[in-house]
Design brief:
- The structure is a homodimer.
- Chain A is α/β, with parallel strands linked by helices.
- The first copy, chain A, is built from twelve helices and twelve strands.
- Chain A has helices spanning 18-36, 51-57, 66-71, 88-94, 96-102, 169-185, 203-217, 229-238, 250-263, 304-318, 323-337, 353-367, and strands spanning 7-15, 41-46, 75-80, 107-113, 133-139, 143-152, 160-168, 190-195, 223-228, 245-248, 271-275, 283-287.
- In chain A, the strands form two sheets. Chain A has a ten-stranded mixed beta sheet with strand order 2-1-3-12-11-4-5-10-8-9, sandwiched between helices. A two-stranded antiparallel sheet of chain A has the order 6-7.
- Chain A is globular and about 65 Å long.
- At the A-B interface, helix 4, strand 6, strand 7, helix 6 and helix 7 of A face helix 4, strand 6, strand 7, helix 6 and helix 7 of B.
- Strand 7 of chain A pairs antiparallel with strand 7 (160-168) of chain B.
- The structure holds 3-isopropylmalic acid (IPM) (2 copies).
- One 3-isopropylmalic acid sits between chains A (92, 254, 288, 290) and B (198-199, 230).
- Chains A, B: Its cofactor is Mn(2+); Mg(2+).
- Chains A, B: It catalyses: (R)-malate + NAD(+) = pyruvate + CO2 + NADH.
- Chains A, B: This is D-malate dehydrogenase (decarboxylating).
- Chains A, B: Belongs to the isocitrate and isopropylmalate dehydrogenases family.
């Protein structure tokens, strides 16, 4: 009996180093999930955009066609980009950052919590693992990553270089609204907004202003407060239970989300979703870790961040209809991290990437 | 028998909130120290520059004369500035930031270690307290704090604001050299340089370039490496023992030094020195914490960061001749933090600011 299910088209960009290894693992898990489920199927198109190919072809993404190519898909699954043979600002501006910009992915969602089996530095002190359950909403389209600025007298000893951060009312307001809506949807309904408006008195002050404006609309619904980014790191360490949803600029949230992942026990488990909430372009899902040249090729990297990112992709694609499947996927992931035999080195175990991947597939088959 | 000792002129700016309380405590300790010591005396001139006075007078620092006024001193001791009645960017640009800029204080030194008696989150896990012994060298005169940028269409829904970070070869090279010299003077002789040059491709790339240039001169003497600021937070949490001296931009080091203080157990103990290494202007010493309106006026704030900052001031003033006195001051401080009865609330104790201050004075008298 043939079943009829929606088929989503996915562009998979494994990229460099462990990016390719974890993408491979995530695609296996996704394949098992879609086979086990009546609810959806995936049609995966793998794109060989990487630093190695850049060195032979001269481009990361085909110059005239990459935007059209990506737009043929419902979502993008991304591994990692960056390799010692190419300066980092060339590789990142050759691939990941242009996708975030051109695909209108103005929200980057970064949930952090202490997964079963994780040895979180914080949970060793006074805090309980359940105290650390955050979602960081990162502005993903402007600010410190606008790419503007330049260098004058580059080779002279009086060289001057600038980095120009651009903040727009439109950009700030839409991320603020997204953040308040996210906070509203969570049990604790709390939002903390982060800036550095004491020292940075133009764009950051506009952030404050728009925050106060939007906060008024949510009075009595979402409890909100604001923090300076430096003090925020202290609060994350000392009072994790006081935080819930967090919204910050492109750079600040980049830093805070890595810190969050470290405090939760491993950068290897943290996911990220680059979303176009208007759904006019495909959104992109990637683990927050990078290509990790030091451990690449050894088959020992942690695929859990890639699995979690894949689960978020399924949830996003379903627009509410695949929540149960995504929840089952997450349950399978936590069963795997919960078992000492299927943890990689960064989580204190000895399992290989393949073993963790086999385990997740078995769990998915069992649960779904 | 009259003794002859050098008398240093100090401008004390207590400022706002607990800034005033800890300055008061530090001045008492310094007074006791100079009384007990044959090596130096202090002539302290207290300046009433604060947010409360700003509200009545319309200025933080006397507009035409503040620079000349400060330059009459050998050093500046600073409490904290910032109060809920004045927007933070007005207060900070009204006092602290202009001093750093105009007094040529292009280096900000922020040591972090786990003081005796401190409950450091990290030390609870695998790390030993001795693993966390860092000094962060913060660029203090340009970068993201240059103050440049502006707002256009501020009240419209198409407002645009910019923050312009300025990096100069001169500014980068001098901080890099200071950092390498600092690393060279420490037992482990290691330097980690931090940027975000993968996403910020102008000024940050200039940082990388100057770093590599200066690093060559120290080959075989200082072991150096570089990190991205986001990944750096992870390394601080997971591999504290791998770090020694750290150099970073104004904003990055601001964030990392607060995180460092939190990981070492309390932001209340961390000191900072704003240095003009050319000694053409007075340098400024301040605890890294702020004015803390929530606990101000209760007499419960931790004066240890203020003591440590005062010890650094003595060391700086002595140009090598007061190192022993500064070391004794530090020994006294650690005897006080080492005693549960003389710890403030943030360190898990119940002592009042006054009790800690009395204890430090007794210890100084005993040791010196
Ligand atoms: C108060 C603020 C402007 C200041 C800074 O960011 O420089 C403070 O956080 C510090 O670290 O000295
Ligand atoms: C690789 C880098 C440019 C990227 C970023 O800073 O955005 C990464 O750190 C991330 O957080 O996704």
């Amino acid at each position: 009996i043939a079943s009829i299910k929606p088929v989503y088209k996915i562009a998979a960009i494994p990229g460099d180093g462990i990016g390719a290894e974890v993408t491979n693992a995530a695609l296996k898990a996704l394949d098992t999930l879609s086979q086990s489920s009546d609810a959806f199927a995936l049609n995966v198109n793998t794109l060989d955009w990487s630093s190695a190919n850049y060195l032979t072809r001269g481009w990361y993404m085909p110059p005239d066609t990459w935007e059209d190519e990506l737009k043929k898909h419902d979502a993008i699954y991304f591994g990692a980009v960056g390799w010692p043979t190419v300066p980092d600002h060339i590789s990142l501006w050759g691939m990941m950052l242009p996708i975030r910009n051109s695909m209108n992915q103005y929200v980057n969602v970064r949930p952090t919590r202490v997964m079963r089996g994780t040895k979180a530095p914080l949970s060793q002190l006074d805090a309980k693992p359940s105290d650390l359950d955050w979602v960081i909403i990162r502005e993903n389209s402007e600010g410190e990553y606008a790419g503007q600025g330049g260098t004058t007298h580059g080779h002279a000893n009086y060289a001057v270089a600038t980095e120009v951060a651009i903040f727009t009312r439109v950009g700030i307001e839409r991320i603020m609204r997204f953040a308040f809506e996210t906070a509203k949807s969570r049990p604790r309904k709390k939002l903390t907004m982060v800036t550095k408006s004491n020292a940075q008195r133009h764009g950051m002050v506009l952030w404050d202003k728009v925050f106060h404006m939007v906060a008024k609309e949510y009075e009595g619904v979402v409890e909100s407060d604001k923090m300076l980014v430096d003090a925020m790191t202290v609060r994350m360490v000392n009072k994790p239970e006081s935080l819930d949803t967090i919204v910050a600029t492109n750079l600040h949230a980049d830093i805070l989300s890595d810190l969050a992942a470290a405090l939760a026990g491993s950068i290897g488990i943290a996911p990220s979703s680059n979303l176009d909430p208007t759904r006019s372009c495909p959104s992109m899902f990637e683990p927050i870790h990078g290509s990790a040249p030091d451990i690449a090729g050894k088959g020992i990297c942690n695929p859990v961040g890639a699995f979690w990112s894949a689960a978020e992709m399924v949830r996003w694609l379903g627009q509410g209809k695949l929540d149960q499947v995504a929840d089952q996927f997450m349950e399978a992931i936590e069963n795997v991290t919960g078992d000492p035999k299927t943890r990689t080195g960064d989580m204190g175990g000895q399992a290989k990437t393949d073993e963790v991947t086999d385990a997740i597939c078995r769990e998915i088959e069992r649960i779904c």
